[in-house]
Amino acid sequence: xxxxxxxxxxxxxxxxxxxxxxxxxxxxxxxxxxxxxxxxxxxxxxxxxxxxxxxxxxxxxxxxxxxxxxxxxxxxxxxxxxxxxxxxxxxxxxxxxxxxxxxxxxxxxxxxxxxxxxxxxxxxxxxxxxxxxxxxxxxxxxxxxxxxxxxxxxxxxxxxxxxxxxxxxxxxxxxxxxxxxxxxxxxxxxxxxxxxxxxxxxxxxxxxxxxxxxxxxxxxxxxxxxxxxxxxxxxxxxxxxxxxxxxxxxxxxxxxxxxxxxxxxxxxxxxxxxxxxxxxxxxxxxxxxxxxxxxxxxxxxxxxxxxxxxxxxxxxxxxxxxxxxxxxxxxxxxxxxxxxxxxxxxxxxxxxxxxxxxxxxxxxxxxxxxxxxxxxxxxxxxxxxxxxxxxxxxxxxxxxxxxxxxxxxxxxxxxxxxxxxxxxxxxxxxxxxxxxxxxxxxxxxxxxxxxxxxxxxxxxxxxxxxxxxxxxxxxxxxxxxxxxxxxxxxxxxxxxxxxxxxxxxxxxxxxxxxxxxxxxxxxxxxxxxxxxxxxxxxxxxxxxxxxxxxxxxxxxxxxxxxxxxxxxxxxxxxxxxxxxxxxxxxxxxxxxxxxxxxxxxxxxxxxxxxxxxxxxxxxxxxxxxxxxxxxxxxx
Length: 635
Hints:
Blueprint: E1 2-8, H1 13-23, E2 31-38, E3 43-50, E4 64-66, E5 69-77, H2 80-89, H3 99-110, H4 114-117, E6 120-128, E7 133-138, E8 147-151, E9 154-158, H5 161-168, H6 176-185, E10 199-200, E11 205-209, E12 215-219, H7 223-231, H8 238-248, E13 256-259, H9 264-276, E14 282-287, H10 289-295, H11 300-311, E15 315-320, H12 324-335, H13 343-356, E16 361-363, H14 368-372, H15 376-387, H16 392-403, E17 408-409, E18 412-413, H17 415-424, H18 431-439, H19 444-450, H20 456-471, H21 478-488, H22 490-505, E19 509-511, H23 517-524, H24 539-545, H25 551-554, H26 565-572, H27 574-582, H28 585-588, H29 594-606, H30 612-630
Parallel strand pairs: 13-14, 13-16, 14-15, 16-19
Antiparallel strand pairs: 1-3, 1-9, 2-3, 4-5, 5-6, 6-7, 7-11, 8-9, 8-10, 11-12, 17-18
Helix pairs in contact: 1-5, 2-3, 6-20, 7-23, 8-23, 10-26, 12-30, 13-22, 15-18, 19-20, 21-22, 26-27, 26-30, 27-30
């Protein structure tokens, strides 16, 4: 895992690459390198920061140049040994034992066809001296990030947005539509970037940049096509597919550890990995008891301890009790874009603790909820269809009763009251808006009332984009349509994004065996009725897990990888919310309306409604907005 940066057809390219490489030094503390070529036809400069995982020798440092091709590569290729053997039969001679050299030679041998052969996570740039073209590519599901900016007659690119901002801040401008999208979702869909003109290379795509500055993007892997093909075939042997994926993700020349929350997904990954390699240990998080009470959080560590004890896994516990006022500006900078999910703090602190113990690679169970219908929102949307069939009078009585419920009492969070209120925000809506409202922070009218009237049109645009993407498939059941939408939006825009930034800020690589093309295809071969049945989600995965885990873990209540957000908003951050948010740039500039913001805060403090996520998101957005301006980015 590494960081890459580069310039193509830029007169000031070397200076920019030096700045960008320094800004993402955290992604690769083990080695750094640059490479350049300037002639009458092309100018290209490439930079690399290395976190050494496979082939730890200096021979595998990057940029890697060989026979007219030069590569900077961020990621891991789990099937590189098989591809290397195949390339060797074609006469290729290798100078290293790295997967980096396999990527370069695979491209030489198969061109874009190599991308569908790769099983791994990656983002890379490859310069071909013969054609003068620059190739950019990203893994199928968008695990590894790659930002690029068309500039003049070429492009500038990097692993993180902050690198582009550090190098070119005075040339850039904040994109207001993206800020509105971040308020709706509390993260940014892949189709949008917080900085105007900067683009994210889509997962499953590659781009060819030619010497004349033209950029052509092509897709080699489309989730909707893969899902449709899988749905038309027989159900996959899910257990075998998952076992093989976890085994593949253990390829490493350094020790591998695992996240273990005690939930189903992390338990599957940890136990299967430990069966393959008894040396694998695990990390879990705990919270202060007072924070758990207000959050109404289950004690996941109890289950993590049970799994670890049963299978002999060495478990390291990390208590999450940060100085959130001090940490908040840092996590905003780490996350790169306005992402308002406090779970990123858990990832950062856990990875820092693991790194202090010498850990470079950690496995995660991320992705299973999106693919197998494991979120509460999936079950809630299915239940909403049944609720909608109740008589209108009955629904009115239910709504009246739920509206009167408080969300906290005597310093304790009332979880079921929160869930009931949330459910009623979308229960009467049609399928697509119902799903959107099940996980966004506002309905469109609420968001339009919060932002400046000049920004209201962006609300309609963002909502329309969600509708277009949700309907862009040929799947026949609602559950799989939700899973596909989550795979294309929620997984890449939020979970993979914050995991990459937070883990790499600690110089730790997180691998995600469920976020794998083979696993994804297997997931969509399973009908929605086999994923959600009656009042239970992730049924097919639980059935497969029965051969690996005790029933107590397989069927334990669903818990989220969250943080004591309500305790922070109610207690630790009260002054910051007043001084930084209410008295901040977003209100002062008129981007958000002061009275609407104050109503959110009052509802939260009175315990009438749970507005903690909205307040946290707006606070992090305020800090992001200030930081961007401090870097010279125009509003």
